[in-house]
Every structure is written in structure tokens, then in C-alpha cells.
Automatic annotation (TrEMBL):
Cofactor section: dipyrromethane
InterPro entries per UniProt: HemC, Porphobilin_deaminase_cofac_BS, Porphobilin_deaminase_N, Porphobilinogen_deaminase_C, Porphobilinogen_deaminase_C_sf
Domain Porphobilinogen deaminase C-terminal, first and last residues per copy: 240-309
Family listed: Belongs to the HMBS family.
Biochemical pathway: Porphyrin-containing compound metabolism; protoporphyrin-IX biosynthesis; coproporphyrinogen-III from 5-aminolevulinate: step 2/4
Protein's name according to its UniProt entry: Porphobilinogen deaminase
The reaction(s) this protein catalyses: 4 porphobilinogen + H2O = hydroxymethylbilane + 4 NH4(+)
Keywords for this protein: Porphyrin biosynthesis, Transferase
Enzyme class, first EC level, given as a word: transferase
Domain Porphobilinogen deaminase N-terminal span(s) in chain numbering: 2-226
Pfam name, any one: Porphobil_deam
Lineage start: Bacteria, Pseudomonadati, Bacteroidota, Chitinophagia, Chitinophagales
Length: 324
């Protein structure tokens, strides 16, 4: 019996249940063990002020090292690139959507100045190179992610960003009770638990967090039976892509408040890599867009990091880390 550790939010339990079902479909019995993390308990402090790296994983890491669970299931974007001593990656499931979406507030009231909601939606969803900044009035958007905040303000410098915390259910409720225009969510999370509203806009110009949309399983180093069972549900292509994204993040050594984004996708025999760094208030942005041959044994994430450093990302990162 494999004991699967998970946070107790609806999304986390859904993800752990997927792992349980996959293991049991291959003949390995499993059961869920629910654990509450400090990231779930503190719903007020912005994530970047808490030291976001590991805030959702530390409790499960401790349970794993203390042999209270056999594996832990995480949204991979929440997992620090450096795993604790004694813990290893056991598997990565097939990735769902990596997109961010803007969920519109169903109770938002437009000001009486002739602004058209359809025009706002068009400007928000239009590809970045064609965007025109709304001139009628500034919007207020909610997110707890410094990455999402930075990219939004880079594109819409006149807008206001409000902090919003909690699991997806809590954030959707807070949005409906607010006067915000909308809030940014990971599309995969809402889709997985059937809560993606019809009034949402895909932000296909916004680069995701490294490994967004992927589910990661960790286990104790040397636990051969558990590692062998998990290896059977590993999705090779997803694991390859998210490794490149996390290598990019690791090479840049950004702090928890450094807005670093990355997306690797496979097309035929090539890996396409997009990465960016944006200052927290959106004023500066440096990006890379590279293609690597998969069979060339090139560490794509590290190569992309070198490319963005050549463009001047190093001083920008150092300045942001100093200001944290």
C-alpha cells in the first residue's frame, strides 16, 4: 500500500486522486493522507512576502522524510528546483493546460462612460504585438503571483493589481464579492475540478510559471519499490519539457519574488523554449525565444538561461534580489 500525501484543498485532493487511480490501474494499492500546509493556513500574506518557494510543499516534505507518507503529490510549479536532501522526483504526470486565464467578476459594474465590455475583452485577449492600452479608465485585477502581476503591468501599466489568496474556491468567492474587474488563475486548476467559468479569457500572451499545469510526485531517495511503481506512470515528454523550464529557473537563480517565466513545448524533433524576466512593477522585460533539437543532447533550459543572460538579465535579477 502506497500512502499518498496531499494538501487538503479540493484541487490538491483531485490531483492526488489521479495519482491513486493511475497506480491502482497498474495493480498498486494506494490511499490518501491529507495534510494542511502553511500556504493554506495563511490566506492574507502575499505569497512573495511569505517566501513562496516551498510554502506549499514543506509540510509534505517533512511527512515524507518522517515516513508518515510514501509519496507526495504537488502542483509542480510550487516545488522548489532544489529538492530537500533525501527526497527525489518520482514521476511527472502528463501536463494539462499551462495557460493563465482571467476570470471576469460576474458582479462587476461598468462605469457610466460608454465603455464597452466587448472592447475590453478584445484588448485583454489580443496578441501582445497588436494590443492597444484601454484609455477610458484603469481596471483592477487580482492575483497573488508576482509573475502574473509583472506581466500584466508590463502590458497594462495603468491598471491596479490587488492581492488575492486562498484555494481556487476561496479566490472565486472573493472575486465575486469584490469590485475587481477580474482575477488571474491557472487554467488547469479550474478545469481539473470543474470550476472554470464561462466568463474567462485565455491570456495566451502571458508566459506561465515553470512547470505550470504539471503534477509532480516525490518520494524518499532509495525507496526502490515506490520509485519503481511511480516510474510506470511518468509521462516522458512532459518531464522533458518541465525539466528544461526548471533548469532555466535554476540557472538564473531568481529569488522567490523574481518574476521568471518559462514554457517549453515539443514539435516533431524540436523543443521550442520561451522565457522571460519582468520587473515586479512591469517596467522592464527581457525575453528569449529559442529552438533546440531534442536529439542533440543540449540542456535547453540552461542554454536558454545563457541566452537571456547575454541580453542583460543578470543585472536585472541582481537588482530585484537585492530589493527583496
Amino acid at each position: 500500500m502506497i500512502r499518498i500525501g496531499t494538501r487538503d484543498s479540493q484541487l490538491a485532493v483531485w490531483q492526488a486522486t489521479q495519482v491513486k487511480n493511475l497506480l491502482e490501474s497498474l495493480g498498486t494499492p494506494a490511499q490518501l493522507e491529507l495534510v494542511k500546509s502553511e500556504g493554506d493556513l495563511d490566506l492574507v500574506t502575499p505569497l512573495y512576502a511569505m517566501g513562496v518557494q516551498g510554502v506549499f510543499t514543506r509540510v509534505l516534505d517533512t511527512a515524507l522524510l518522517n515516513n508518515k507518507i510514501d509519496v507526495a503529490v504537488h502542483s509542480m510549479k510550487d516545488v522548489p528546483v532544489q529538492l530537500p536532501e533525501g527526497i527525489v522526483e518520482a514521476a511527472v504526470l502528463e501536463r494539462a493546460s499551462y495557460n493563465d486565464i482571467l476570470v471576469l467578476n460576474p458582479n462587476w459594474q461598468a462605469p457610466d462612460n460608454g465603455v464597452q465590455i466587448s472592447n475590453l475583452k478584445s484588448q485583454i485577449s489580443t496578441p501582445e504585438t497588436l494590443n492597444v492600452e484601454p484609455e477610458t479608465f484603469p481596471l483592477t485585477i487580482a492575483t497573488s503571483s508576482v509573475r502574473r502581476k509583472a506581466q500584466w503591468l508590463n502590458r497594462f501599466p495603468g491598471h491596479t493589481i490587488e492581492n488575492i489568496r486562498g484555494n481556487v474556491n476561496t479566490r472565486l468567492r472573493k472575486l465575486s464579492e469584490s469590485n475587481w474587474f477580474g482575477a488571474i488563475f491557472a487554467e488547469a486548476g479550474l478545469e481539473r475540478i470543474g470550476l472554470k467559468p464561462a466568463n474567462s479569457i485565455t491570456l495566451n500572451w502571458m508566459l506561465p510559471a515553470p512547470a505550470q499545469g504539471a503534477i509532480m510526485i516525490t518520494a524518499r531517495k532509495g525507496d526502490a519499490a515506490v520509485l519503481r511503481a511511480c516510474s510506470r506512470i511518468n509521462h516522458t515528454a512532459t518531464a522533458y519539457c518541465v525539466k528544461a523550464e526548471r533548469d532555466f529557473l535554476s540557472e538564473l537563480m531568481g529569488g522567490c519574488a523574481t518574476p521568471i517565466s518559462a514554457l517549453a513545448t515539443i514539435h516533431q524533433n524540436s523543443l521550442h523554449f520561451k522565457g522571460s524576466i519582468v520587473t515586479p512593477e512591469g517596467g522592464q522585460k527581457i525575453a528569449v525565444n529559442e529552438t533546440y533539437a531534442i536529439d542533440a543532447n543540449i540542456p535547453a533550459g540552461k542554454a536558454a538561461a545563457a541566452a537571456i543572460l547575454e541580453k542583460g538579465a543578470g543585472p536585472l535579477i541582481a537588482k530585484m534580489n537585492h530589493e527583496q
